[in-house]
């Protein structure tokens, strides 16, 4: 009797492992392309980005994340980035709010292209900084565009979203996190 | 004919080689050959985050190119190979390195196989021990032997009496 249990043990362990792998590989929302950010709950990196000329909003640096006591949304975008257009309406919604900062990092873009894109689709950002060589992007761990960071009033990165905000992401994820951080202040 | 084959083989090797270093652009090369060699070695172990299964050394992605330049800048600034790698993993996580470092999160990754073999080995030892116990029976005690002989004798008697009846 004892021996029978011992013999079935390897089979049982294998089945449990298979079950776990199957679950892990097929669970909804799994996307191997999305990497967890190592910067969550870490201070935002130092940077200083120049403004996009003729746009009418200033550039920004790390100091602008902590200067006014507001939660900041930092959105990485580019004119060549098609999914950026898809999440643009969400950015417009966020840009209308006065109780948060909406900052845009223009990633690996030509100034003329970026300006045309923002003129055509409307500029939702309170500040836009140019990152033509993606150096600031690398410091933020950016590897795909668009990416959206939520930074609290002390300059600590609290959340990162890779890829465009899909329908429901703003209401179900982004806004609750903003509310939470504002409540903590 | 043989010459043609040789020519084709050489051509094949040549094109295969040029493919594998295609992404590498001449304007990135450092003047110092020793630093450049280190940069190439590091670049082969850094994952391109855009293509994911390709090292930045052979990737054509813009981000890979920029990371190759960053690697070289860090080396010129006097960083050691490990410094450069930790610079990158501080921004992109351990995933950026093809060879996972040893830490609490990767402990099972490194020792998992050893653990499986260990458990299996222990299982095997128990299995063979158990079998041996089955095969090697204990010798009979004097009383048991006496009873055993008694049974044998009775068996013989019945057999001989049976055979007497039939014949």
UniProtKB/TrEMBL annotation, chain A:
Pfam families to which the protein is assigned, alphabetical: Redoxin
Subcellular location: Cell envelope
GO CC terms, sorted: outer membrane-bounded periplasmic space
Domain of life from the UniProt record: Bacteria
Domain Thioredoxin per the UniProt entry, residue ranges: 38-183
GO BP: cytochrome complex assembly
InterPro entries on file: Periplasmic_diS_OxRdtase_DsbE (IPR004799), Redoxin (IPR013740), Thioredoxin-like_sf (IPR036249), Thioredoxin_CS (IPR017937), Thioredoxin_domain (IPR013766), Thioredoxin_ResA/DsbE_sf (IPR050553)
Transmembrane segments: 6-25
Classification via SUPFAM superfamilies: Thioredoxin-like
Keywords in alphabetical order: Cytochrome c-type biogenesis, Disulfide bond, Membrane, Redox-active center, Transmembrane, Transmembrane helix
Molecular function in Gene Ontology: disulfide oxidoreductase activity
Keyword Secreted recorded: no
Family assignment from sequence similarity: Belongs to the thioredoxin family. DsbE subfamily.
Protein name: Thiol:disulfide oxidoreductase DsbE
Source organism of the structure: Kiloniella spongiae
Automatic annotation (TrEMBL), chain B:
Organism superkingdom: Bacteria
Alphabetized GO MF terms: metal ion binding
Matching Pfam families: CcmH
Presence of the UniProt keyword ATP-binding in the record: no
Residue ranges crossing the lipid bilayer per the database entry: 107-128
Signal peptide: 1-23
Keywords carried by this UniProt record: Heme, Iron, Membrane, Metal-binding, Signal, Transmembrane, Transmembrane helix
Signal found in the keyword field: yes
CcmH/CycL/Ccl2/NrfF N-terminal domain ranges (all copies): 12-152
Record family assignment: Belongs to the CcmH/CycL/Ccl2/NrfF family.
Role played: Possible subunit of a heme lyase.
Name of the protein in question: Cytochrome c-type biogenesis protein
């Amino acid at each position: 009797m004892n021996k029978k249990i011992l013999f079935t043990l390897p089979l049982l362990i294998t089945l449990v492992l298979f079950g776990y792998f199957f679950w892990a590989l097929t669970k909804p929302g799994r996307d191997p392309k999305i990497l967890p950010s190592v910067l969550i709950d870490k201070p935002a990196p130092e940077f200083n980005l120049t403004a996009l000329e003729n746009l009418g909003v200033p550039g920004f640096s790390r100091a602008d994340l902590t200067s006014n006591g507001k939660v900041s949304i930092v959105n990485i975008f580019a004119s060549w980035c098609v999914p950026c257009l898809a999440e643009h309406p969400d950015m417009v919604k966020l840009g209308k709010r006065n109780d948060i900062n909406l900052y845009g990092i223009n990633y690996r873009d030509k100034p003329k292209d970026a300006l045309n894109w923002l003129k055509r689709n409307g500029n939702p950002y309170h500040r836009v900084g140019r990152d033509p060589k993606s150096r600031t992007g690398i410091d933020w761990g950016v590897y795909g565009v668009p990416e959206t960071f939520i930074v609290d009033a002390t300059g600590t990165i609290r959340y990162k979203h890779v890829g465009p905000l899909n329908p429901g992401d703003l209401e179900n994820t982004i806004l609750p996190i903003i509310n939470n951080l504002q409540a903590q202040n | 004919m043989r010459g043609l084959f040789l020519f084709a083989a050489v051509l094949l090797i040549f094109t295969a080689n040029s493919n594998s270093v295609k992404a590498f652009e001449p304007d990135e090369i450092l003047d110092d050959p020793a630093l450049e060699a280190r940069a190439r070695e590091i670049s082969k172990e850094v994952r391109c985050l855009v293509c994911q299964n390709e090292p930045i050394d052979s990737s054509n992605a813009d981000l890979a190119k920029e990371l190759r330049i960053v690697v070289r800048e860090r080396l010129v600034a006097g960083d050691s190979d490990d410094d450069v790698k930790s610079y990158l993993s501080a921004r992109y996580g351990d995933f950026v390195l093809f060879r996972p470092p040893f830490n609490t999160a990767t402990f099972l990754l490194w020792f998992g196989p050893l653990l499986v073999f260990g458990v299996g080995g222990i299982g095997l030892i128990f299995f063979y021990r158990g079998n041996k116990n089955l095969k090697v029976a204990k010798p009979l005690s004097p009383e048991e032997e006496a009873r055993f002989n008694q049974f044998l004798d009775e068996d013989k008697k019945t057999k001989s009496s049976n055979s007497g009846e039939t014949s």
